[in-house]
Queue: 3 jobs
Job 1
Amino acid sequence: MGGFAPIILASPYTLMVTVGAFLIGFAIAIPLMFMRRSKFVPFRLVAQGFIDIARGIPPIVWLFFIYFGLPGIGILLDPLEAAIIGLGIISAGYLAEIFRGGLVAVPKGQFEASHALGLGSWTMFAKVIAPQALRAMLPGLATYFIGLVKDSSIASVIGVTEMVFAASTYARRSPEGILLFFIAAVVYMALSIPMGLAARGMEARMRKAGAR
Amino acid sequence: MTNIFQFWANIFPKLFDGLIVSLELTALSLLIGLPLGLLLALGVSSQFKPLSWLSIALVEIGRGAPALVVLYVVYFGLPALHWSPTAFLCAVIGLTYTTAAYAGEYLRGGLRSVNAGTIEAGQALALTNVDVLRFVIIPQGLRVAIPSLMGLAIQIFQATSLTYSITVSELTANAYSISNQTFRALETFALAGLMYAAITIPASWVTRQVERRMSLGQ
């Protein structure tokens, strides 16, 4: 019995998919959130459409569409790239909504006070609004990231050699392979429980910093 | 080369058959999983420690392990215990467990939000503990949990696509086999995606309305 080795060796791929998708999602979600709040209606409709489609289609269908479908129009991606882009698009949809929720949580008076102080819109956003919004959306971000660690297992269906791919390869070969799924499950929980605790700690610290 | 709408019209019936299977899986998982979730929620808040620990473990494992891993464990694990149910039944078992674990967490939150005063009022009226649970705590707790349970239903509907990997012929699996036969993956998965979205987008819209209406009532 190979024990932990195949799972541990595959875990960097789990992290790569998760972190890659989160970063892509974060980068797309910022302009998406501004478009969603824009006064220009077509921007708002496009952003809302993107968010709904990104979140409304199951991840596995996104990955198949990108990995098997896009080569039809000349875009060839390897499994890892396809998984990161696919989960990145979905993350963008969810993160844009989390960002919006964070902004809504900032009291209107903060915007008015910034205007009254004659701050430019960039300064207002960077120095006044963003720090407060970040505090409000931290729990949402942490929960989403932890969920994404688990969703990265879906990358196995297009052949990314992450933990579930390794486990299912062994499980098909021998009956004891089932144990590898238990090991994988333990690793997922070992990843998500400390992350949850860290997020809660970070939240408490930011709340204290905010109260000062 | 037929045009895309002609192609979509050709493959629609098979995808639609798959969609029906996806909906059946969703309905069965919710029908069995939600009552189990309520039992787990009650178990977590039980005074009897071993029951409470067991319930917490079941909820945390079900939420901590990816749904895909749960499905694989059922699919590869049950035959090792000398029981080989069909792939469809394995999918129902796996998704039911995931549903129950999440529902357990949401319902626990709902039950905890019930105002202590109403519970005391029930006791003051000499209701038995079971009656306080049945007529006071559960109806109010359920109500609070409704929006998150609706969100869960949408998540479970999306999660039925994972059962493709344990060979259930649902929407994603049918799309996969069509794309293998026709070599038109782009159009096939686009239609499959739109079919999922045609259900999830209106459903999440309804969920948002319910959420808004309930928050107005408070």
Job 2
Amino acid sequence: MSLTMKCHKIENKLSAYQDGELSASEKEQVERHLAGCYACREQHVKLQQTWQALGEMTEIRPTPGFYKRVSQNIDQASERGAWGTLLGNLGFKSLPSPIIASVILAIGILCGTFIGKSLINVQPLHPAAVRSEEGLLSSLRVFDPVPPGTLADDYERLLSYNESHIR
Amino acid sequence: MDFLTPSEELLARVAEGDEYAFQILVDRHQTPVLNLIYRFLGDRQKSEDLAQETFFQVWRSAKAYKGKSKFTTWLYRITVNRCLSEIKSARRKKWLQFFRDMTDPKDLQDESLLDAAPNAEDLLITRERSRQVSNALQTLPENQRIALILKRYEDLSYEEISSVLGCSIPAVESLLVRAKRTLQKKLEKI
């Protein structure tokens, strides 16, 4: 850099000059320029004021027991380490929780459907029976107080069977 | 081993599971780490949580320290990475309004502030100035903000900052020039 170094180049160097990061020769050149250039000198002062203003931000202190809490975190992490490793090995760690939740829900629905079907044996309506008058009437029995084929119907039959055998 | 033992040596002991060495290390560096995060995020409570996570990471990564850089450079790198992942995480959770509003005066009600300002008027002025500086810092892009905090408050050299940020020294210089120009405009009235 020469003595005739342009102002915009000096402005770019002012930050490093302020931070003490310029070489001896660069520093000397900046100082010579500042001595003869009012605008750059003013810019330098503004930069210093900004630097000083940054000191207005107060320093905070850690709350008491900081180390204790860090230590507790470490203890907790080592306690759940075995489970964490196991889940990680099974691939759960990398899966996002919505995916895991969806899989669990799907498994639940499938299990529910299977168990429900095995407990209640639903007879599908036969199309031919529906067509016939008899079939139509029998199909209307679903509106009976105790529709045939339901648990209540089975219970009533069981009661009547018991009564007939006791007598 | 005492409070004069170099941090690098303490970390070597931490790598072997020495909890006392870890305690000395935490006591020695907790305030700079906490303040680095606080100046970056501007959130007191979140900063405390992240500082704890940072030291947890130090404990876990102690064996990975090869001694190629100063301990503080290594520590600040962990801290900065933690801050950056927090910013990314916060962006994803923006709808939860993860960060407290920077205009919330509660952020600036800490003991050091009360110590520094003996009367109510001084306290208000100090708090307001601190808030303005914090707000101005938050407007800077992340890399500029980190570079400036490391220079202004931790007094790291350009070489050390370049090592923390993983960029060249001219890049650090450029980051600081731009950061200072932006702040100059923002803080002119203080």
Job 3
Amino acid sequence: MAKSVSISITVNGRAYRHDVEPRLLLSDFLRIELGLTGTHVGCEHGVCGACTVLVNGDSARSCLLLAAQLDGAEIMTVEGLATSGGLHPVQKAFHDHHALQCGFCTPGMLITAVDLLKKSPLASDEEIREGLSGNLCRCTGYENIVRAVRAAADALKSENQESAL
Amino acid sequence: MKPPPFEYLSVDSVQAATAALAAANGEGKLLAGGQSLMPMLNFRLLRPSVLIDINRIPDLAYLKDEGERIRIGALTRHRMIETSELVARQLPVLSEAMGHVAHLAIRNRGTIGGSLSHADPAAELPMMSMLLDAELELASAKRRRTLSASEFFVAALTTDLAEGEMLVSVSFPKMPPSAGWAFEEVARRSGDFALACVAICLERSGDRVSHVRIGMMGVGDTPMRATETEALLTSGRPLDDHLVAAAVGSIRASVEPNTDLHASADYRRHLVGVLAERAIRRAWSRATEARHG
């Protein structure tokens, strides 16, 4: 076995120190080593988007990253979205708009939507569709997902306006 | 699937990366954004003995204004190019093309050096570097050299990169402010690889095209320039419907597309003509009369 690599990594605000095999994917590190099974693994080649997480604030496919390369990185998974104050506005919008059926794609959709709305807070419907186009929903529940992200964008906007007052 | 076993080495300089590549005797692979390499590892299409991670090399991710040219460091992420004001101003056709590169999460990680070195014949950046006459700067333990894009791309997934050599930067000549441009692509789904794509930069002089560059992909083993169609458009005839129709015929006649799972050769040949017509008309309407023209 190849020599293991020692990494310090922060996941959902908690610091971990692990020795990992070089070929260990971030997706497997999260699920198997840390037990954070909210990140789902679909295609394992970067097509389905189910395993999307935030790496230093930007969305990325966790099946296309090695844990070994992430020494010092900050990761956020779907488990990190909700706070003691309740669901994240994007999660709440998914709940309100019935934007999930089987739920397999949901963690990746949520994380992708969070990154999209951070980068384009005033996203148009077309931008939302384009932004979510890298995430597959095999229940084909896209309409409600787009509606939920639209609602989340509006909710985040009024939240920001209130906090600016 | 999971990647096969390999050693992992993180390097902090181009010298260390090329030395490690040379020491690996052809068994080493550079890891940049990993958005093409990691799927190939997961499928076990590649079994390198060592993965050399270049993500921690400082000063390899940048966009620089060098006067006549824009230089982009090999480790620059697609997202940085997509959102760069400098690129939007000086290389607007590249700016537009970046929105067609895969999806947000992929653009956050993927790098220009990785995309060019991977040389997928249906990827946007190799085609854009052909279109814009980019120069690629390569480094090895022993030397540095500069190649034009047309020298760099040899065949599908094959470049002129030698063993132990890496791409360190790519530079694009700025587009003239009067140039018109267009980027036209058809893909099955947003963010998918193109079935066919045509991009154009042109300059006009009165009712004639004075300079034109046409890049295309999806219709051959590598991205290409449509040189015969370029010559036809600049042969001195006024740009009217007849000339556009002749250009469409010429670009269709010049390609030998492949049939694959996604589209037949005939369909791709049809598409390249449709896209060429749209691109010529859009670029023409965007071009302004050059002052010196």
